Amino acid sequence: MSIAGLLLCLSAGPLHAAPAGEDTFVYTVKRSDTLYGLSQDYLTGPNIWRELQAANRVRIPRNMPVGYRLAIPRRLLKFTPVALRVQTFSGPVAVSGAEVRKGLELAEGSVITTGANGFVVISGADGSRIALPSNTRVKIGQARKYLLVPAIDIELQVDRGKAEVQAAKQAPDSRFRVRTPVAVTAVRGTVFRAGYSEAAASSASETIEGEIAVAAAKAELAVPAGFGAAAKAGGGLAKESLLPAPPLADPAKIQTDLRVAFDFTPVEHAQSYRMQVARDAGFLEVIAELHAQRPHAEFEGLKNGMYFVRAAGFSAAGLQGLEEAYSFRRQRVGLAADAGQSALPGGFRFAWQSEGEGTSLFRFQLFGASGDGLPLVDEPALGKPEMTITGLRPGAYRWRVGVIQTTPDGSAQVWLPFQKLTVGG
């Protein structure tokens, strides 16, 4: 579909004498249609035919030519609600001030707000899916199915933050739109993002799959996959290619530290980054998010298990780049150790303590001062968190302890840094 055709769905241009700026639907007259019958069965009142007759210059309401095109204001169309429901959520999420719950149905006018580390996914009866990340405010403007034709009309108003949308393929007369204070994005079945920054007073739309149409006060653009469009309050639009996804520096790393930490490779021209952790590869269950100037993120409080992480860079225009999901395993393994003299003459006792779940086996190594060559002592598969060594000659030594911890998800190994031990004469 051309940009003009797609934007016609965005704000269908009036036919005949429809009022300027009126949000209209174009209906093609069929055999036996009359203005009386259409008003009675499909419009909001039996006398609406008079308004349509005047606006469309219909001479004989009972005898309209087949194929005649009527411009009908959408406000006059009868409809049934399209169910939009909360599919999943985490963190601080509110719906029009009420408590949120899974399965909650969202009526037209509902306002969904997410706080810091608040996330919610909304699913539509048409198969569409809308993910709202942290610090976002979205209003359900329209969610309706018209009776006159099998058409669905969904409109979201993003006042703050971003909506990440996977729109179902739209029927010819259906439409899916996302509005911000400075732009409107229309789609016909695609994956895209549309958001608004209050601080910058700008809108950003990015296409992941398919094509979107973006309109501002003074311009309109077709935006294919891999591109985005930024709109300012003045009404202009600027299109640019999206930044590539930042690669994860060590994707095979098992996350054993107290904090889960990630380093991504910087992307040229990126001004900032967003990094997210989710329970699923589709990022429907996002549980943590961080915005930072550099591609490094640390998260606290993640329990053991399998997760997914992704990052995106933001351009100077505020457009969010592409993302690639990586799986990782979280297995908290902590280890602390100390050394001191034992009760045995000339003996030294080494003791350690592990943190984490599962079965632990320890390994103790003792080297000469340089730490080079073969260890003087190498004891693997120790079940007890201690051992005593006697007969050490005077001098400097280096020692360390490692642990292999095994859970049903697998094993992880952690080594403590080398520590020094000096034996006097």
UniProtKB/TrEMBL annotation:
Signal sequence interval, chain numbering: 1-17
SMART domains: LysM
Annotated ranges, domain LysM: 25-72
UniProt entry keywords in alphabetical sequence: Signal
InterPro entries listed in its UniProt record: FecR, LysM, LysM_dom_sf, UCP029644
Pfam short name (any one): FecR
Signal is among the record's keywords: yes
Protein name: FecR domain-containing protein
